[in-house]
Amino acid sequence: MAAPLDDCALVIMAKAPRAGRVKTRLAPAVPADALVPLYRCLIEDTVALARRAAVPRIAIVCPCGDRTEVAHWLDVEVVEQEGDGLAAGLDSVFRVFVGDGCRRVIAFNGDTPHLPPETLAGAFALLARHDLVVGPTEDGGFYLVGARSAHAGLFDARGLGTGGALRSLLARAAERGLDVALTEPCYDVDDGSDLARLAAELRRTPSRAPRTAAWLVSWNGRTP
User: Fold this and answer.
1) How many whole angstroms separate alpha carbon 77 and alpha carbon 80?
2) CA distance 139 to 197
3) What CATH homologous superfamily does 8-218 map to?
4) Is-above-0.85 flag for pTM?
């Protein structure tokens, strides 16, 4: 029997869906005017994934200035991060949510809406027994990180978004004596080859990310 998630929060890292600010690494594979609709589908499917996993508290942490637009778009709690960049955003997740009625908090990207809900539930279960849980991506990054306390300086802004992001995070966790558990690896949608892989997966199982699956079917641009 799965452990209850009463003390859990899943916080999705997202931005206001504006041209030139989202999924820019997909630009060689996807026309510029299609990037925002795709991003909307990815984030909406990510929120739906969190709901299927039955996490009681779902929220968005967004960059400063994005809150109103994101709140009008998504029917979830929205909090603006303190500071600029992803590292500051991740710091904000744990500073804001740990202790605010939540003992286990996971920060989740918006690029893996195809993740099985069981993986999220399993990550929260691991977090009940470890200081930190990390979901590695196949390219050396991570798609989620969870903690039971805020750890100042845990995230290195210089390493995030690179193939060394996971290695840097694990090194900083080791320096702090944190006990870390890893979930199974997953790929995230960063470039055209990732999108092609996701399209092939969603042709087989569109229910994994139905909005994204429908967008890929209807897209009249270059097929990934």
Assistant:
1) 10
2) 14
3) Spore Coat Polysaccharide Biosynthesis Protein SpsA; Chain A (3.90.550.10)
4) yes
